[in-house]
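note to self: dont lose this again. the chain is below, predicted strucutre after it. 339 aa total, dont forget to put it in the shared folder this time
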Amino acid sequence: MNDLGRIHRILDANLDRAREGLRVIEEWYRFGLNQSSLAESCKNYRQELARWHRPEFWAARDTAGDVGTELTHPQETQRDDILSLLKANFCRTQEALRVLEEYGKLVDVNLSQAMKQLRYQIYQLESELFANQRQQKLEQAYLYLITMPCPNLFNTVEAALQSGLTLVQYRDKPQTDNNRYEIAQKLCTLCHQYNALFIINDRVDIALAVSADGVHLGQQDMPLPTARKLLGHQRIIGCSTTNPDELERAILGGADYVGVGPVYATPTKAGKPPAGWDYVAYVAQTWHKPWFAIGGIDLSNCETVLGAGVQRIAIVRAIMDAENPGATTQQFLQQLQAK
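---
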């Protein structure tokens, strides 16, 4: 086989790889999410690839002589969850398109350019999928655990996750950056094992470094529009708010959720007065995305908070300091579900 035949063989294999990866993704859009428009996009992309699959590429195929058919990697034999499966197939598709773009330059510049444009479209499709998945999880989350430094941090968080928690924020302001990164990385892995969202407090850089699901910003942190430019639209951004002006900035900045409080005085926000029930009522009437009441909420006053029109709560000490964080998490979830 001459060089042209070898190039045709490479193009044939990667056209197949890209179509196969897209078909796996399409099935989830169609049957998993009932997203007809996104499933149709995948189908159209597959048909576009088929249009470039020329007879001479097919003719160069040599499956029996392919030395790579027996090659595998342990990571390919098992997927942890649906997101890891989808990520693997997006990577498979994107890598194949890059190969097609480069080797296509040797055969047909139009093929190369078409594969380049298609690769960018697949990047956008991936962003839409993971943004959609995260937003759905956020909509379904009613209990939000915000960590604080403690000796049994990982055990405490895992106990809460085992009890049904689906949203965790890592908050540890005194920590050094090296330790903060290592802890965040471990917590992110732990949360994703339980199919829970993982948010980083304040630090956009660490959120990106550990592939967290988003970041939570205080009023003195990086401006929300800047954080959005860095994180993109596929990750979640939340904001702390204590009054209508701060809420208005969150709305204009495109926050995905807000924290509302402190509802009660709390040592977590030392010296900060409660936001007041009038502000809680204002948020309930004004904000149409998820919002979480925070500040001094525990099992003894949770019913009062929920009775004031609150549907979602963020908890720190009541779970982090609990003798049995798993049982405490279950009790909070039961009270929330009762409403």
